[in-house]
Specification:
Layout: E1 4-11, E2 14-21, H1 26-33, E3 52-55, E4 58-61, E5 74-76, H2 89-96, H3 106-119, H4 125-132, H5 143-151
Parallel strand pairs: 1-5
Antiparallel strand pairs: 1-2, 3-4, 3-5
Helix pairs in contact: 2-5, 4-5
């Protein structure tokens, strides 16, 4: 029988606490204990990227991280990328460019792209493809996803001026 441990962290800007078995992944904690179901679990081996969340600014595969390892961290899931009234600019570009079909990979794509553009708002298409290459999509062929991320770069620039294309 596994010991139950308590972990506290910030989830989408709100302090949370979860009491979970010691071997509970962050993905399972977020989905089953904290009821934020936007984070999807696919391969459970860190290969597909569907479970990607942002931990202290970095894109992390939440199926490979234990919930207790998140103690004190700031975690953002896809739910934390927008507010209840409107889509974020990145989400709006995904919609505009038809960058999703079944939607299973979309939360991981969005969180990965958000982490990238937060650090590199001038990322070119090659860099975007490189970073997103760890996220598997079986529906779109990736072109609309790359186009959407590329188009959203303006929103991550400090001066909000259009990025040269």
């Amino acid at each position: 029988m596994s010991a139950t441990l308590s972990t506290r962290f910030e989830l989408n800007g709100q302090p949370v606490e979860a009491k979970v078995p010691a071997r509970t992944t962050l993905a399972d904690c977020i989905r089953h204990h904290l009821l934020q179901t936007g984070t999807h679990v696919g391969c459970e081996h860190g290969v597909c990227g569907a479970c990607t969340v942002i931990v202290d600014g970095a894109a992390v595969r939440s199926c490979l991280m234990l919930a207790v390892q998140a103690e004190g961290a700031k975690i953002t899931t896809v739910e934390g990328l927008s507010n209840p009234d409107t889509l974020s600019p990145l989400q709006a570009e995904f919609h505009k460019h038809h960058a999703l079909q079944c939607g299973f990979c979309t939360p991981g794509m969005l969180t990965t792209a958000h982490a990238l553009l937060s650090e590199e708002p001038d990322a070119d298409k090659e860099r975007i493809r490189e970073v997103l290459s760890g996220n598997i999509c079986r529906c779109t062929g990736y072109i609309p996803i790359v186009e959407a991320v590329y188009a959203a770069r303006y929103a991550y620039r400090k001066d909000k001026t259009p990025v040269k294309t």
